């Protein structure tokens, strides 16, 4: 009899611990961005470790490059003209390109001139699988998701860079390629970098998320756009423990772009690639997303 009673007490204790874990999980999950912000302000959590909150204006924050930056309690870019990018030292690491990886419960970009970007952090001029060709006059634009632009090749213009990669961004994900040209007046633009975002509850983007290519100079070809992969997990997953997913939070996707440099020129860079999972996109969702994203509910 004492043995049975002891086992019963152990099981009751385990159940209490489980209920306590679920209660703690309930405290920090199934909250929209505003509620989560209030939650982190009231808790003993560390800014820059457990969450990332930027209230100041005109701040540039650089996260680890090509490593996962994880914030379990959200990323809140609330200051005006706030820029979030990666540590990138091209002079020191010649083969390093800009690749931002971020896993967070929430992402809130509050103001229109604030942004997350890896623009012009891909392949430099004359480099990459879709690099633009050199010519006697205009140099060709870099290619990636679309072919780059080119002038009249018969008159000596450089050839456009070709397409490469695949649309889902799951089998392979690429940097944008550089535009053609490395001479003084023919410097091609850099290609765009890569951004990968995993957002477990809510995305509110009133600013922009960018991996655009660079312009280069007068006769240089534009660099092609890079890659943006966004996974909105809580719309398509279900937690057996907390039973809080999927939620009904409304996402604001806002401006998301992977366009090439020199978009109004004949030797413009090609567009990059964007893929968004976890939410079925409407025509209203994608009106400010360029290029048109690959979209599925499930990966």
Number of domains: 1
Please provide the count of β strands: 16
The residue-averaged pLDDT reads: 88
Largest sheet: 8 strands, parallel
Order of helices and strands: HHEEEEEEEEEEEEEEEE
What is the oligomer described by this structure?
A: single chain
- Given as residue ranges, the uncertain stretches (5+ residues, pLDDT < 50) are 19-26, 236-245
Structure notes:
Residues 1-31, 124-144 are annotated as: Disordered. This is Tenascin XB-like protein. Residues 10-28 have a biased composition (Basic and acidic residues). The chain has 299 residues and is α/β, with parallel strands linked by helices. The protein has one domain (31-296). The protein contains 2 helices and 16 strands. It has helices spanning 2-28, 33-41; strands spanning 52-54, 60-63, 68-71, 75-77, 83-86, 99-109, 115-117, 182-183, 186-187, 194-205, 208-210, 227-232, 255-257, 273-277, 289-290, 294-296. Strands 1, 3, 4, 6, 10, 12, 14 and 16 form an 8-stranded parallel beta sheet that branches. The chain has a 6-stranded parallel beta sheet with strand order 2-5-7-11-13-15, with no helix packed on it. A two-stranded antiparallel ribbon has the order 8-9. The longest helix has 27 residues, at 2-28. The chain is elongated and about 75 Å long. It starts with a helix and ends with a strand. The model is unreliable at 19-26 and 236-245 (pLDDT under 50).
């Amino acid at each position: 009899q004492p043995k049975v009673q002891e086992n019963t007490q152990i099981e009751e204790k385990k159940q209490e611990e489980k209920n306590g874990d679920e209660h703690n999980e309930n405290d920090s999950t199934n909250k929209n961005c505003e509620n989560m912000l209030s939650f982190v302000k009231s808790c003993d959590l560390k800014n820059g470790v457990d969450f990332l909150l930027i209230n100041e204006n005109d701040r540039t924050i650089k996260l680890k490059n090509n490593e996962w930056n994880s914030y379990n309690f959200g990323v809140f870019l609330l200051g005006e003209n706030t820029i979030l990018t990666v540590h990138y030292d091209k002079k020191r690491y010649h083969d390093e390109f800009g690749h931002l990886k971020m896993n967070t419960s929430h992402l809130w970009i509050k103001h229109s001139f604030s942004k997350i970007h890896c623009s012009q952090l891909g392949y430099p001029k004359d480099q990459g699988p879709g690099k633009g060709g050199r010519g006697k006059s205009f140099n060709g634009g870099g290619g990636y998701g679309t072919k780059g632009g080119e002038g009249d090749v018969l008159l000596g213009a450089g050839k456009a860079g070709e397409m490469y990669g695949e649309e889902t961004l799951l089998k392979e994900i690429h940097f944008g390629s550089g535009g053609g040209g490395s001479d003084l007046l023919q410097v091609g633009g850099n290609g765009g970098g890569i951004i990968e975002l995993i957002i477990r509850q809510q995305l509110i983007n009133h600013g922009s998320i960018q991996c655009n290519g660079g312009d280069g100079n007068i006769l240089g070809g534009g660099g092609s756009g890079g890659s943006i992969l966004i996974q909105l997990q809580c719309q398509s997953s279900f937690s057996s423990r907390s039973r809080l997913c999927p939620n009904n939070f409304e996402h604001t996707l806002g401006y998301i772009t992977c366009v090439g440099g020199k978009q109004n020129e004949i030797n413009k860079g090609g567009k990059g690639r964007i893929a968004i999972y976890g939410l079925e996109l409407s025509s209203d969702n994608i009106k400010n997303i360029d290029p048109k994203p690959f979209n599925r509910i499930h990966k």
